[in-house]
Specification:
The complex is a heterodimer of chains A (460) and B (437). By secondary structure, chain A is an all-alpha fold. Chain A contains 16 helices and two strands. Chain B folds into two domains: 124 residues, no CATH class; 218 residues, Orthogonal Bundle (MetI-like fold). Classes of the chains: A mainly alpha (460), B mainly alpha (437). Chain A: Keywords: Cell inner membrane, Cell membrane, Membrane, Phosphate transport, Transmembrane, Transmembrane helix, Transport.
């Protein structure tokens, strides 16, 4: 509530600051705006920045540290027997305090000390929020006054404002880098914790996957073994099936559209393919599980084959369908980039259109097409919903497309959905799988994007 | 370009050898055979291309057709008409179940035994008493009167009315008892069981009972999530694109950023889910299942898409615009903000809409951050537990009840409708504002 109020006050003060700055700048030269160094609206933005920016920075720093600070204060007041112990019990205690402070039942009668701590925590947060409101608002008012005071004919408002804007732009472009760093660090960090429990060699080359850990020492049958080879094999199998569908169809569709189809046909086909590309993967997953899998199964049974109801074939075919527009639009770009002069030369020698395409255009476009296929493979490997909904959960080491296999992404999704503890090897193994997935797709993407880039330069 | 290709094609299509040519190898039987083979190969190749396109179109039709066939009926729901006497004592006790049952028994005077009554009880949705309660709560004056109301039927009856059960199967294989079918038929015959437009589907939250489950909660969750995504990724993405395209010097550092953005656009979406789980939930301790976290993850995911689209749009603005602005004394920032950016805006907008459509249909990363929970309440704030439409589809797709399949398909239809609408708007915007320099 206080935070919303503060946000409102800040917005209001910024707007007021802009208006004051603008009118005061004009007034300071008696309305002869040409005598100002910067146009009045830059003076307005200048004051608005003084009003909003310091308060905003304070707000960010404060909210980032407030919860942690409050927790430390509350914990330091608790007796040692509660706060010492392994990481888990402290984490549990913190969660209890947080939940009680938010009036969420923890499902059991709280320790009176903990309840008291939660009350103090809530009270502290409340106090801190109110003081943030007071400090933030006064900072904004002070900033506004200071900015207003600086305004005069000689104030170089525009360079200051532009410098601030420039910094904001740079920060925004750094978000992408930060995201990558965040991905790498979080995957590495959690995966390293996993590899302290399970050796990387066992993980990468083991052939038995059963992540269910025993809850008690004497439990039978769930030892937790993390050999990821069956997952890699399953991913590979489904990817190969998907590529067998997507590459020929996508490539031929691209050739047809760029070389044969007339303008009328193309204006209809392109949007249709775009619709196919825009369908959410969960819809493909539903289609795979409820339409394609029973269909594959009944066809297989009619042929006298034993088909699993979660066969790799069904998931692979639907995944291939999903990737068709991806392959075709990338190949379309690549084929269109082949210079017309190459085609003309071929026609001049008397080649037919298909001969030209097969013997001149495709070889010239080959690097780009290979790159497109690599990007498509990376898409297929990383695709989650279709396989989660239509392929199995049991890790089968098989090359038979009629059987159920499981994939890396399916396992990540199922390991992390539902209740989980953060440091069991079962949960952490998902990050190990994620790391492998990230590295593999990253390599594919890097190589493919580089090929596309050099290829484009070659014909530009 | 196209015309040129076609002209060329016409010009080079091998015509029969010119008649003026002397009798030569060109007229030989072997040559004619080769030519026929080459032309046949040409036709085959062309046919293969057309077949590939036709196959893709066929699959699209098949996919949409199967979903429409499964889901269209979900837009209707079966309701039962009851003459409920709102006995004030029972209303005070909030014993609405008894009131409804009494009204239902009144329509079947011949049923007196317990088993028969139990069959009748099962005709009504278990949510029907709440409908009545809501009605009375809205208008307390109703107590003591007799009202004709329509309440939701149970999902099995709903499915029966829609013809999902095969009546020719023996009772044991049908999954629905003969007694219920007879009762439902009696109601149908008297007009007391009828289908109406299904408002529940749009307004209700999730439920274990198919007839009470709706996508209202999921739509609210999707909107909240999308709001966060848009608020974060659009300004950041445009600012980053402006910096990289208009201000940044071409050096190693900007090269690195560029390669990084291109790679980020191709990172599997589930990896962003892992990032969200480890950083936002694990490190910053944000709440699970919250649209805030979902929006953050989606924002990071759509950011590269928006940056790339915005850069393309900025690049398309000709340098003469910039030179003219700089020439009359605008600062570089003024040039960009007053002239380049407005001209690039349609392209940026199109890219943004496509990015948002992608975020709206994304499921996998949200599974990681707990937006897959069973949530009945409709979320109102950014930190309430919520789910989104695609995740709701994923959860319903797992439910065994026949009625959930129907509702899943209906939810898919609604999602696809919104997505096609968004993409259509993007295409129209592109058409209207497209400018050739």
């Amino acid at each position: 509530m206080q935070l919303t109020l503060l946000a409102l006050i800040l917005t209001l003060l910024t707007v007021i600051g802009f208006l004051i700055g603008r009118s005061r700048a004009a007034a300071s030269v008696g309305g002869r705006v040409a005598e100002l160094h910067s146009v009045p609206s830059y003076h307005g933005v200048y004051v608005a920045l003084w009003a909003g920016l310091p308060a905003l920075l304070l707000f960010l720093a404060w909210t980032a540290s407030e919860g942690w600070l409050a927790m430390q204060l509350v914990l330091s007041a608790l007796p040692e027997r509660l706060t010492t112990g392994d990481g888990q019990s402290v984490a549990l205690l913190k969660a209890d305090i947080l939940n009680l402070a938010r009036d969420i039942s923890t499902g059991r009668e709280p320790d009176p000390l903990v309840a008291e701590a939660a009350r103090r925590y809530a009270a502290f947060r409340d106090l801190a929020d109110w003081s943030l409101l007071a400090v933030g608002a006064s900072l904004a008012v002070a900033g506004l006054a200071w900015g207003r005071h600086r305004i005069g004919p000689d104030l170089r408002a525009r360079p200051v404002v532009e410098r601030v804007v420039r910094v904001v732009l740079v920060l925004c472009s750094l978000v992408a880098i930060l995201t990558t760093v965040g991905i790498v660090l979080s995957l590495l960090f959690e995966a390293l914790r996993f590899f302290t429990v399970v050796s990387p060699l066992d993980f990468l080359f083991g052939t038995h996957w059963s992540p269910q850990m025993a809850m008690r020492a004497d439990q039978v049958g769930s030892s937790g073994s993390f050999g990821a080879i069956p997952l890699f094999a399953g991913t590979l199998l489904i990817t190969v099936i998907a590529m067998a569908v997507a590459v020929p169809v996508g490539l031929m569709a691209a050739i047809y559209m760029s070389e044969y189809a007339g303008r009328g046909v193309r204006t209809w086909l392109k949007p249709a393919l775009e619709i196919l590309a825009g369908i959410p993967t969960v819809v493909y997953g539903f289609f795979a599980a409820l339409t394609m899998a029973p269909f594959v199964r009944s066809v297989g049974e009619a042929l006298g084959l034993d088909v699993s109801s979660e066969s790799a074939l069904a998931a692979g075919i639907v995944m291939g369908v999903m990737i068709i527009p991806f392959v075709s639009s990338l190949s379309d770009d690549v084929i269109n980039a082949v210079p017309q002069s190459l085609r003309d030369g071929s026609y001049g020698l008397g080649a037919t259109k298909s001969e030209t395409i097969r013997q001149v255009v495709l070889p010239a476009a080959l690097p780009g097409i290979v790159a497109a296929v690599m990007l498509a493979v990376s898409r297929a490997i990383g695709e989650t919903m279709i396989v989660t909904m239509a392929s199995g959960l049991t890790a089968n080491l098989t090359a038979n497309p009629l059987q159920a296999v499981t994939t890396v992404t399916t396992q990540i999704a199922t390991l992390l959905v539902g209740d989980q503890e953060f440091d069991s090897p079962k949960t952490l193994s998902a990050f190990g799988l994620g790391l492998v997935l990230f590295l593999v797709t990253l390599c594919l993407n890097m190589v493919a994007l580089r090929v596309v880039r050099t290829y484009r330069e070659k014909y530009d | 370009m196209t015309d040129l290709v076609e002209q060329d094609a016409a010009a080079v299509t091998p015509s029969p050898a010119p008649s003026t040519a002397p009798k030569s190898r060109l007229r030989s039987e072997a040559f004619a055979r080769r030519l026929r083979a080459r032309h046949a190969a040409e036709r085959r190749f062309r046919l293969a291309g057309a077949a590939a396109v036709a196959l893709a179109a066929l699959i699209l039709v098949l996919l949409l057709g199967s979903i429409v066939a499964k889901g269209a009926s979900a837009f209707l729901e079966a309701r039962i008409r009851l003459e409920v006497t709102l006995d004030p004592a029972e209303v005070a006790d909030r014993n609405y179940t008894a009131l409804l049952r009494r009204a239902l028994y009144a329509q079947f005077p011949q049923v007196t035994d317990r088993a028969g009554k139990r069959v009748l009880n099962d005709l009504l949705s278990s949510g029907a008493p709440y409908e009545l309660e809501a009605m009375v709560a809205k208008n307390p004056a109703l107590a003591g009167t007799t009202q004709t109301i329509w309440v939701r039927a149970d999902d099995q009856i709903d499915q029966l009315v829609k013809g999902a059960y095969r009546r020719d199967l023996p009772e044991s294989e049908r999954g629905l008892g003969d007694a219920k079918i007879a009762a439902a038929d009696a109601l149908l015959a008297s007009g007391a069981l009828a289908q109406g437009f299904n408002t529940t589907l749009f307004t209700a939250g999730d439920s274990r009972e198919p007839e009470q489950a709706g996508i209202g909660g999921a739509i609210a969750g999707s909107l909240l999530t999308l709001l966060v995504t848009m608020a974060l990724s659009v300004p950041t993405g445009i600012a980053a694109a402006v910096y990289l395209e208009e201000f940044a010097a071409r050096n190693r550092w900007t090269d690195l950023i560029e390669v990084n953005i291109n790679n980020l656009a191709a990172v599997p979406s589930i990896i962003f889910g892992l990032l969200g789980l480890a950083v936002f939930l694990g490190f910053f301790g944000m709440p699970r299942s919250a649209p805030l976290v979902g929006g953050l993850v989606m924002a990071l995911m759509t950011l590269p898409v928006i940056i790339i689209a915005s850069r393309v749009a900025l690049k398309a603005v000709p340098p003469s615009i910039r030179e003219a602005a700089l020439g009359i004394g605008a600062s570089p920032l003024q040039t960009v903000l007053h002239h380049v950016l407005p001209l690039a805006m349609p392209g940026i907008l199109t890219g943004t809409i496509i990015g948002m459509a992608r975020a709206l249909g994304e499921t996998a990363p949200l599974l990681m951050i707990g937006m897959v929970a069973f949530i009945v309440d409709i979320p109102h704030g950014l930190t309430d537990s919520a789910t989104v439409l695609p995740v709701q589809i994923y959860m319903w797709a797992d439910s065994p009840e026949r009625a959930f399949t129907e509702r899943t398909s209906a939810a898919i239809l609604i999602l696809l409708g919104v997505l096609i609408l968004l993409n259509g708007v993007a295409v129209i915007l592109r058409k209207i504002f497209e400018r050739r320099w």
